Amino acid sequence: MRIAILILSILFINTQAAEQDGIAPIPKTVKYNKNLALLGKKLFSDPLLSKDKKVSCSSCHSFEHGGADPRSVSIGSEGVKGNIQALSVFNARYNFKQFWNGRADSLHEQASRPIHNPSEMNMNENEILSRLTDIEEYRDQFKALFSKNSITFDMVVNAIVEFEMALITPNSPFDQYLRGERNLTKEQADGYRIFKELGCVTCHNGINLGGNSFQKMGLFVPYRYDPTYPDLYSITKKEEHKNVYKVPMLRNIELTAPYFHDASANNLESAIALMGLHDLGVELSQEHISKLTLFLKTLTGEKPEILR
């Protein structure tokens, strides 16, 4: 009986500590308009939304790769290369801003930008609407959902956003731990403790363990600066914002290699070692790297229900 009480007390203390950092489990379910989201799912994977009819949103946000792109940079319409590694679209509803430099304040704003971007889908609204209107199935679906006889671009974006809002990955081992439903292994628990003691949690906190603040890449040990990457400086033009990016979320991190804005880390272990050096100012031991890796793998959740 005493052992059971002790275990429950430890779980409660750990949960309380996590809550202080804003760390919380992803909800098991979220409310969304299923029919609208299913239309958005179809649009998300439809290459008709790109200039050459070969690229879709899912081309750069692979459902089998944690919602991110396994390539260093994405390849847009007509083979044009992007200029930064694509972030995951999974759990993006919990990010405080979208894109690495936070240039979009909402998913609605984010969803429309790749469509217009010359290095991504390179399309204009009129061409998209013309293509969709030519397809009877799309005409019927939009009319049923919006009760309008014509399709508007805002309807298209709303459907895509509704789909993106449904892309949560709940019930990871760490979520179960936070809810008191299971224990972490000793090595995983050690990794979580090291994660907090080293100060990783200072930037990687909140429900996504990231995605809710900006931080400089190279806070202690300078990281190479390349002006071709769209950092916060590209928006503010303030010198102190060079190499400042939105802190990426750690949810499903084991699935989303390569890592960093420049895709310079090919595996989780090297990413941890580089972050320790550049943003913590420490050279991590192999033991610490191994235990941190095991902890980070507990953040892999279930595939979004709408994709199952």
Helix and strand topology:
Blueprint lengths: L1 H19 L13 H11 L12 H4 L46 H10 L8 H9 L2 H11 L6 H13 L7 H6 L7 H12 L16 E3 L16 H4 L7 E3 L21 H13 L5 H11 L12
Helix pairs in contact: 2-7, 4-7, 9-12, 11-12
What does this structure look like?
The chain is an all-alpha fold. Helices cover 40% and strands 2% of the residues. The protein has twelve helices and two strands; from the N terminus they run H-H-H-H-H-H-H-H-H-E-H-E-H-H. The chain has helices at 2-20, 34-44, 57-60, 107-116, 125-133, 136-146, 153-165, 173-178, 186-197, 233-236, 268-280, 286-296, and strands spanning 214-216, 244-246. Strands 1-2 form a two-stranded antiparallel ribbon. Helix 9 packs across helix 12. The longest helix has 19 residues, at 2-20. The chain is globular, with a radius of gyration of 21 Å. It starts with a helix and ends in a 12-residue tail after the last helix.
In short:
With 308 residues, the protein is an all-alpha fold.
Keywords:
two-stranded antiparallel sheet
> Cα distance, first to last residue?
41 Å
The fraction of residues in strands falls at under 5%
Shape: globular
State the order of secondary-structure elements, H for helix, E for strand.
HHHHHHHHHEHEHH
Number of helices: 12
Unreliable stretches, pLDDT < 50, 5 or more residues? 1-19
- Supply the helix-strand structural class: mainly alpha
Largest beta-sheet details: 2 strands, antiparallel
Radius of gyration: 21 Å
Please tally the β strands and state the result: 2
Task: Please estimate the helix content.
Answer: 25-40%
- Report the average pLDDT across residues: 93
Strand order of the largest sheet: 1-2
